[in-house]
Structure formats: C-alpha cells, structure tokens
Write a structure and sequence with these properties.
Strand content of chain A: 15-25%
Structural class of chain B: mainly alpha
CATH architecture of the largest domain in chain B: Orthogonal Bundle
Helix content of chain A: 25-40%
Strand order of the largest sheet of chain A: 2-9-8-5-6
Largest sheet of chain B: none
Shape of chain A: globular
CATH class of the largest domain in chain B: Mainly Alpha
Number of strands of chain B: 0
Number of helices of chain A: 8
CATH class of the largest domain in chain A: Mainly Beta
Distance between the termini of chain B: 31 Å
CATH topology of the largest domain in chain B: Rna Polymerase Sigma Factor, Chain: A
Radius of gyration of chain A: 20 Å
Oligomer: heterodimer
CATH topology of the largest domain in chain A: Jelly Rolls
Shape of chain B: globular
Order of helices and strands of chain A: HHHHHHHHEEEEEEEEE
Number of domains of chain B: 2
Number of helices of chain B: 7
C-alpha cells in the first residue's frame, strides 16, 4: 500500500474515531496506523465534536436523579480511596464559589476554580471516607469479588520481573463483559509526576498490545485496580505492566516491564 | 475542612451530573444503561481530571468529550449484544435547530456559529453523525449520498470546524490514552 493511501485511510479513520463510528476492526486498524504517527493531537477533533454536541443541548438540563447522584458520590469516594495519586499532584484549589443554577450562568473561564476543585477534594477524601466503599459494596475489591463469582472469568497470576522481584498478585478478566481487575502486591510506589504504571493486554487479534489503563501505587499493601481496556480484547495471551511517562503512552517501548502474567 | 473538600466533589457532580446525564439519555433509552453510562463517565473523569487544560476548552466541553468516549464505548458494547434500538428514520426527530437558544458554554456558542459557516452538506453530515449517532454508511443510506461523498463531507467539515474553533494544540501528545 502506498504512503498516500495509508494517509488517506488514516484521516478517514481519524474522523470516524472522533465521530464515534469506528468499528472494532477499524479501531485495530487505526491503532496500527497511529503507531507510525507520533505526536498527533487527536483530542482537537474530539473537543470540536464535543462542543458541537453541547451546542444542541438546552442549558436547562435534565436534573440528575438523587439516587444516581448518591451513587456517583460513592463511586468518587471509592475511586479516591484507592487511586488518589494523580489528583494529589494537582495544586490546591481556591475556595469553592456558590453553586450556579446552570452551567450557562457560570463565571468566565479565567475566574473559575476549575479542575483543581476536584483535585483538592481527592486528598482528604482518601482519609475521610476510606470506610465508605466497603459499606456500599462499590469498591474495586467488591467488584473483583463479584467478577470472580462468574464462571467464565479468566484468572492469571502476576509474576514480578527483575525490576520488581517481590511483586505479585493476579488479573481477573471477564471476556464477555470486557472488564476486569488487577490485584497487586509488592510493587514500588511511584511518583506520578515522573512516571506511572501502565497495563497492557496482548491479544492474538490485535497487532499491538491493548492499553489497559494508567495507574499509580501510592500505598503499601494490596491494591485492586480496575482494568480500562481501550480496545476490545478477544483472545488475551499476556497481561503486562510497564513503567511509562506520566499519562502513559500509546505504544510502549516495553523498556521496563515490572509484571507479567501469561494466559 | 474535610467536609468542605468532600463538598467540592459533590459540587462537581452537581454541576456536571445533569450534563452527563443528559448526554447519556441521548445514547441510551434503558434507565440502567443510562445510570451505568453516567457512573462510568464520572469514574473516568476522576481519572483524567488532572489532564484538563483550561486554556484549551471549557470544563463543560472537556466533560462532554470524556462522556462521549464512554458513551461510544457503551454503545459499541450494547450493539454487540443487540441492545441498541435501530433508528427508525421516519420516527427520528429532525436535527435540532437551537440557533436562538442560549448556549451551555462559550465553546458551545462558538460551535453553533462555526456549524453555520460550514457548507450545508458538511453541516448536515456532521449533525446526523453527532446528534443522531449515525455511521457514515447509515448517513449514506438516509441521504442518498454516495458513501465516499459522506466521508469527504465529514472529513472536510470536521477539519473546518477544528480550524474555526481553534482547539488544536501544536506538537501535542496523543490524547488516545485516556
């Protein structure tokens, strides 16, 4: 295939991706083509599409059901209790301002507290509600236990490499629901401003390993972390954790593999 | 103090919960699917919040972008399991015209203006794709345009939108990791 054909196909897939119309096969094709094109700003397309989506919404939005709001609170507390590091790296926020009636009425961008508002919440929520996820059964641990109760899940033990000889744990993966959890012990704490851990899932049907999500180790003891596979995983053959730059990478050079689990 | 910071997360949920909920209701009809979508979107938001760049877009646009990613994933999963209703073209609502209505944020207002500057066929293709969730092939079927023409309109329209809105960032790392 010519370079020009490749580029035209890439642009076609890039637009389809931003519009949300890629098929699973096209996702894999796009990932392969993307690997040859470092440094592209794919988010610009997505942001433009999101702005168009917002343009059609009535500013008087449907109210969030109270029960769902409570679930979101519980989810947030569970999340920050277990994976607080990335948010802790963000500077503290100014004092919150009175809650507006709608998004449209809010102050101009420059004067807003921004995402630091959420970041500030993370650190203290860690200590404040560490008991909450267990109470509500929405923690990763509870999710892992629930997944293990299913018959068709895959369980793969971790093996630490020379970079992390004492690390251990396992992966639980549900190929039907395409979700899973990593349980990890003995992995060194990381400084998320310098490096982060990233999970990779090797799949027979994918040309490149599938990104399973970036995570941090900020506490001793056992961690249970949800897997966030970016593409469909049909036939997993190997799970691996690498050390990457903050935010993770699209394609890993696999220079520092710390955990591996062969299916 | 702890109460105040926990309240900050609550404020974020109260501020953007209705937005994500409204978007989720566009993608799914089933109440459980909508709830799942909103919950998954917020978990993802907590993960990627530190990457938000206020110089690039409004918070609401960032939230909508993350929501769309999760909702598209969920739609793919639902399609695989046969859980998505086929759109009945005869019953599908017309593409909304909100030109006179207030916008949710500055980005949305600018996007509305930018849409108006596109060629009519580009605007139509993008609206069918973004608002109605149609694939390129479905748009071709619905409009009678050749598939290649639909793809060209989508591509040129999106490129023009991106330029008009100025959301690009030079030499940025890819955003596909989130």
């Amino acid at each position: 295939m010519s370079a020009r054909f490749d580029q035209e196909r890439f642009e076609e897939l890039r637009v389809a991706r931003a519009l949300g119309s890629l098929t699973a096969a096209e996702c894999a094709e796009f990932t392969a083509l993307l690997a040859e094109r470092a440094g592209l700003d794919l988010e610009a397309d997505e942001i433009a599409v999101a702005a168009v989506e917002l343009a059609s919404l009535d500013p008087e939005l449907a109210p969030l059901p109270a029960a769902l709001a409570k679930k979101l609170q519980a989810d947030a507390q569970a999340h920050f209790a277990h994976t607080p590091s990335p948010l802790r790296a963000v500077p503290p926020a100014p004092s919150p301002t009175p809650r507006p009636a709608s998004i449209a009425e809010r102050r101009p961008r420059a004067a807003r507290p921004g995402w630091s508002l959420v970041a500030a919440a993370a650190a203290l929520i860690l200590a404040f509600v560490s008991w909450w996820p267990r109470l509500h059964g929405t923690s990763p641990e509870a999710g892992r236990e629930a997944l293990l109760a299913k018959a068709e899940v895959l369980t793969v033990p971790w093996k630490g490499t020379d970079f992390a000889k004492d690390a251990a744990g396992d992966v639980v993966w549900d190929p039907t629901e395409q979700r899973g959890f990593m349980r990890i012990r003995g992995l060194a704490k990381n400084d998320p401003t310098r490096e982060q851990y990233q999970l990779w899932i090797f799949d027979e049907t994918q040309q490149h390993p599938v990104d399973g999500g970036v995570f941090d180790v900020g506490a001793d003891g056992e961690l249970v972390i949800p897997i966030d596979a970016k593409l469909r995983v049909s036939k997993p053959t190997l799970f691996a954790v690498t050390v990457e730059k903050p935010g993770g990478v699209v394609v890993s050079a696999q220079e520092k593999i710390v955990l591996a689990g062969k299916v | 103090m702890a109460q105040g910071e926990a309240g900050a997360v609550q404020e974020c949920i109260e501020r953007y919960g209705p937005l994500v909920y409204s978007l989720a209701r566009r993608f799914a009809k089933d109440a459980h699917a909508i709830e799942d979508a909103v919950q998954e979107t917020f978990v993802q938001l907590w993960r990627v919040a530190p990457r938000y760049d206020a110089t690039r877009c409004n918070e609401a646009t960032f939230v909508a972008m993350i929501a769309r990613r999760r909702l598209i994933d969920l739609r793919r999963r639902a399609e695989k399991h046969g859980g998505v209703e086929e759109i009945d073209e005869a019953l599908a609502p017309p593409t909304p015209d909100h030109t006179e209505r207030a916008a949710i944020c500055d980005d949305a207002a600018r996007a509305r203006t930018a849409l108006g500057e596109l060629r009519p066929e580009q605007k139509r293709v993008l609206e069918l794709s973004i608002y109605d969730g149609l694939s390129h092939q479905e748009i071709a079927n619905a409009t009678g345009l050749p598939l290649g023409t639909v793809k060209t309109h989508a591509r040129r329209g999106l490129e023009r939108l991106r330029d008009l809105l100025g959301f690009g960032r030079a030499a940025s790392a890819s955003g596909v990791t989130s």
